[in-house]
């Protein structure tokens, strides 16, 4: 077991993990942060996206020991300080960008990374950025609308697929 220390959602945490423990497993099983979903174990679906040192990563592709000393953000840390939904989460709700909700944490975390790097993405930019995330329910149309709305853009012109 390797001792680990990191900052998760602004709070210092520590724990220990075997060298082959995936970050997704460490977050869910050791730290009880179950918002990070495991959907495929093959880096295909994006349900496990978190931010490590400000960069969106699929947590099933990293070992927990790789984030020793890092700053990690999960879906649990995305709400506003008062507990209300942040602008991205609210846009997902307002524009029906979720259905079953399984992919939603990864989609929200990916959207946050996109909007940090590109505050006013085009519809094509959003669709391209989400290529690593799979949703089996919504068909992506409302997810794209939600992300565009979260960026402050008019979504009325976005055509249905």
Comma- or semicolon-separated keywords:
single chain, 5-stranded mixed beta sheet, alpha+beta, Ubiquitin-like (UB roll), DNA polymerase, domain 1, 161 residues, 5 strands
How does this structure look, described?
This protein folds into 2 domains: 2-76, Beta-grasp domain (Ubiquitin-like (UB roll)); 87-150, [2Fe-2S]-binding domain (DNA polymerase, domain 1). Strands 2-1-5-3-4 form a 5-stranded mixed beta sheet, with helices on both faces. The mean pLDDT is 92. By secondary structure, the protein is of the alpha+beta class. The protein has helices spanning 23-30, 87-94, 104-117, 123-129, 141-150, and strands spanning 2-8, 11-17, 49-52, 55-58, 71-73. Helix 2 (87-94) packs across helix 5.
Spatial ordering of strands, largest sheet: 2-1-5-3-4
Number of separate helices: 5
Report, as a whole number of angstroms, the end-to-end distance.
49 Å
| Average of per-residue pLDDT values | 92
Instruction: Give the uncertain stretches in residue-range form.
Output: none
* Rg, alpha carbons: 16 Å
Tell me, what is the CATH class of the largest domain?
Alpha Beta
What would CATH call the homologous superfamily of the largest domain? Beta-grasp domain
Reported by name, the CATH topology of the largest domain is: Ubiquitin-like (UB roll)
Tell me about the largest β-sheet: 5 strands, mixed
How much helix, percentage-wise, in residues? 25-40%
Q: Tell me, what's the shape?
A: elongated
